[in-house]
Amino acid sequence: MDFEKIFLNNTELQFVWEILLRCLVMYILIIVFLRLSGKRGVRQLSIFEITIILSLGSAAGDPMFTEDIPILHAFLVLFSIIVLYRTTTYFMMKSKKIEQLLEGKPICIVEDGLLVTRDVKRELFSHDEFFAELRQQHVEHLGQVRVALLETNGSVSILFYDDDEIKYGLPLFPKAYTEIAYCKPDSKYACMHCGQIKHLQQIDEICSRCGEQHWTLAMKTKRI
Q1: pLDDT digits (tens, 9 = 90+) for 54-101
Q2: Of 10, 20, 183, 223, which has the fewest CB atoms closer than 10 Å, so is most exposed?
Q3: Are residues 53 and 124 in the same domain?
């Protein structure tokens, strides 16, 4: 068995530096693409945990079945990624600005029972996805929610109103989240885009908050 070929394979110093440079470039590219994918793409894991998994997994996998890739190259990749990870986390601990730049910060999605639509659009977080998250936490309508935050790992944190503070809100379940065909002056309706509550005179009134014209019957039930 040729151990020199397995571990070194005539590795030159110039190629060692090339590996280190490739690691740095790929490390940055992975972070950039994960940031561009939005927080939903890294749910439950931080960007750097995903980066380490992808980087180390790729580095460890190739030498297992590729004959002309020596273990030394894989070791250099693994070592470089760990050093980059430790360096990045060190600077994140030292600087809040760097931490927010790389990982982002929590985004307010619901405030006082209304969707913060500009942040929903910015995070590429569709209504259906967000409604599904709220339904899984037993939220029936937005009037039950005081504040909802989209965390940096893609999860949603919610603060609820007390039962005596619950207001009319946009329903979140498909059967109730249907556009009205007519309106009653004594009923309250919710904008299907932002959750604004209003008494309607006609079904195609423009929402003063977001400019949309789609309404559904608002709800005011307590949390179960």
Answers
A1: 877 777 777 665 657 777 887 888 888 888 888 888 898 899 888 888
A2: 10
A3: no
